[in-house]
Amino acid sequence: MEFSDYKLFSAEGLLSAHLIELDDCVIEKDKPISKSHISSLRRAGFESVYAYKLTEEDVNSETALHMLGVTICGENTIFNISDNGIAIIYAASQGVLSINKERLDRFNNFSDFVSIASSNNFFHVEKGQPIAALTIATPVLHNSDIEALQELVS
Questions:
Q1: Residue 85: helix, strand or coil by DSSP?
Q2: Which of 31, 55, 86, 95 is the most buried (most CB within 10 A)?
Q3: Within 13 Å of residue 56, how many CA atoms lie on the same side as its CB?
Q4: What are phi and psi of 12, to 5 degrees?
Q5: Which residues, at least 6 apart from 2, have a Cβ–Cβ distance to it below 8 Å?
């Protein structure tokens, strides 16, 4: 991910680093900047916009959540990515939650930007009950980081 303050003439297609609310439009954070956004920014007096572009190594957070969710979930768990960009992990059957604390700690200590919050170990769970949440606090992760995290929980 390459962040910079880009002149408007070169900003089309880049991803907005911030939410920008203008009189005639809203540019969502982490969404592409369009020609109409650029026109609105010019009318509002902007000459540049803080944005970023992805590198070949970058994977967007939703794809990264899916890749990690598939690796993390075993035969008794399933996951779903919520509208707010969190992978919720659910019990696929009734039973007692068993978490490998060492793997969980290794995963959570890997980066400040990726974490799993879980229910207590040996907690009774019902089928369909949420037991953990996987979050990524950045819009993208490097593919090498995803691979390293997958290795930590395998």
A1: coil
A2: 86
A3: 0
A4: -60, 130
A5: 52, 53, 55
Distance of CA 114 to the CA centre of its chain: 8
Class of residue 9 by CB neighbours under 10 A (exposed 0-12, middle 13-18, buried 19+)? exposed
pTM over 0.90: no
d(C-alpha 12, C-alpha 115), whole Å: 32
d(CA 150, CA 38): 39
Quick one: tokens of 108? 């959570």
Residue 122 exposed, middle or buried by CB count within 10 Å (0-12, 13-18, 19+): exposed
Residues 10-19: tens digit of each pLDDT: 999 999 999 9
Which residues are CB-contacts of 56 (< 8 A; sequence separation ≥ 6)? none
* pLDDT tens for each residue of 32-79: 999 999 999 999 999 999 999 999 999 989 999 999 999 999 899 999
